[in-house]
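Input record (Table S2, row 487):
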Amino acid sequence: MEIDSRFLSTGLLLVATIIVAKLISAFIVPKSRKRVPPFVKGWPLVGGLVRFLKGPIFMLREEYPKLGSVFTLKLFHKNITFLIGPEVSAHFFKAPETDLSQQEVYQFNVPTFGPGVVFDVDYSVRQEQFRFFTEALRVNKLKSYVNQMVAEAEDYFSKWGPSGEVDLKYELEHLIILTASRCLLGREVRDKLFDDVSALFHDLDNGMLPISVLFPYLPIPAHKRRDQARKKLAEIFATIISSRKSAGKSEDDMLQCFIDSKYKDGRPTTEAEVTGLLIAALFAGQHTSSITSTWTGAYLLCNNQYLSAVQEEQKQLMEKHGDRVDHDVLAEMDVLYRCIKEALRLHPPLIMLLRSSHSDFSVTTREGKEYDIPKGHIIATSPAFANRLDHIFKDPERYDPDRFSVGREEDKVAGAFSYISFGGGRHGCLGEPFAYLQIKAIWTHLLRNFELELVSPFPEIDWNAMVVGVKGKVMVRYKRKVLSVNQ
Ligand code: HEM
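Output record (protoporphyrin IX containing FE complex):
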């Protein structure tokens, strides 16, 4: 009996010791021993690069099921840590600039946008410049931009014949350049200098290559043309700005907003800053919007249910407002909004968002795993991958605009960062309302004036582009047919 009780108390002591040791290790050891995220396996150095260049989304598709929502890829001397899904990406979107910054990872934009703007300036100046964007995109400004968008769409499609076949991708790209030119760059460029300025923007565009991300100043012909084009654009805008100022003329465009913008200390923007901010606006908004309007069309033309639903919505609005198409009418288009938003969920043009980390931080995954991410890592998240997570979006590969309707609201199911085509948090897209209005204005015109049929196969994704879009042509057969309320 005595032996038994001694045995029992020794056993209890042992159990108590183990529990205490576990508690100590839970509270103390993790602070000193980091729980680093798992690494993507591959050859050291080049292995990571080879897999990354194959396409980051393909790498994510392979690694996410094996490694989970947080993992690190070694690329040369850099560690890129991926945070995939709303449960782990809040820090990415909400962290202050001192912890996670954009400046280093988006430096490659500097030779395109020019000196003194956006990623070439301190965060405090950049914040003020983003305030200029916010002011230039306020509702009262958007209202006048919409009138210009509608006028541009009417003018553009009036040049189509009674029936025919077109590459919708090409058509929408061109229409959006014209609209952006009018609303952002101003009347002078749209009316007189369009061809010259378009050619210069084309050179700027072609000067932003995947290699430019790593070596933005590499002396290759594309970079030389980019630099010359930016210089010429600066000269053109300097002339326009000074002629507006000397004539005391004011216009309804983003150019005017930037001319009139002032820093907190009262300093007005310089001509070079205005040019740089306009280039940045065009880079942020042009391809992204034209790609999204093409995907929206491709999906509508392949999904009769939704094509009928958007046509029905147009009829109801025509009954209510007649032919009037303005900001407030476009704002009522809920079905069309969801159809665009769903195309953008499946095909966000910015597939990878990046930050540079300046302090250690920890994340907890959905499964309860905790990881410490050391400072110095590049932090990445991916709209293209996260927007198709099946624990957030039901049947995620399906085009289903109703997933955003009242009652389902899958874009909010796991909080603010469930749907991230426009980013979110601290650096969420400032042009989102502009983009929706522009795409809605175009599709409103097409739906009200044409019968359309997709004649080429459903388009594939062009993963090689910097702004990921549609591969090849999107051939559409059209016939003029005015949508009537009584149809
Ligand atoms: C469908 C169209 C568009 C898409 C998908 C899109 C997407 C995005 C995304 C994902 C970000 C966040 C980048 C990051 O977190 O690193 C962003 C930021 C931004 N976008 Fe857009 N964008 C679109 C249209 C526009 C337009 C039309 C404009 C302006 C005219 C614009 C201006 C901006 C600006 C200024 C930022 C930077 C905000 C900041 O860093 O604080 N975007 N956009």
